Give the backbone structure.
Amino acid sequence: MIEFNLPYRRRGPAGFTLVELLVVIAIIAALTALLLPAVQAARESARRSTCSNNLRQIGLGLLAYHDAHEVFPPGLIDRKTSSKPKAKQLAWSVFLLPFIEERNTYARFDCGFAYNSIQNRVAGGTAIRVYNCPSTARLAADRSGDTTGDLNKNGQWDPGDDLAFTDYGGNFGFTGLNRPFMSGVLIWERPIPIAQILDGTSHTIIVSEDTGRGAAFDGQWANGENIFDESGPINDRFLPEFLWQNNEMWSDHPGGINALFCDGSVHFLSEEMNLESLASLCTRNSGEVVEGSSF
């Protein structure tokens, strides 16, 4: 028998060819493209839930305020006008502080001075977690951080500088569709008791999202003009872009906004909602009842 001694060849480790590598990369890219929307949707769902919880805390605070004073706080006290330029213009959200576990901030806030005074710079500049929505992304041109900062960029403090923002506004009422002026719950100079909410607390909005506003659109939580008189659809993009956040119901949640009702419940309102139904929810005694299925 003849034996052949063939030279020994050591086999190297197996590897990917260029084609195989490109196929793997393509599969990973496809999986990423499929998973990314689901991940983003899950994150938005969590942010929307946090926003809803913020409003629930605000609602519990408002009801506790009502228990203590037998009225809801007025939307604004001591309003600034052309004939009264040095008024204090204090917001409902100032008087709510002790009822949302912000007693220390309230203790530092001096209600004897204007919301934008030097006396209230520190307290009014405190960012309140429950006053801000984590989904807020589209910001007004004059809002970039947690506070107004140096509004006129002159390098010194002026009234209104350094005040913290909020993404929630009080319901002042609805303009148009034959609704009366100041038909909401948080209005100028007048506290409203539950007894005057004739449409029912579960059918009347008291606070809703109005996100991303800067100082020009009264986005400071201490500012008494942090109230909105709704006049059109939710997330009304038919307005010029610079007016999108002009004290109207607005959010960065896809499809609508979170709204707090006078009974402490929170509902998601669709931006496709019928305008008559929205107007009814914004008024306290219009004599109309909007069923929950219409939200």
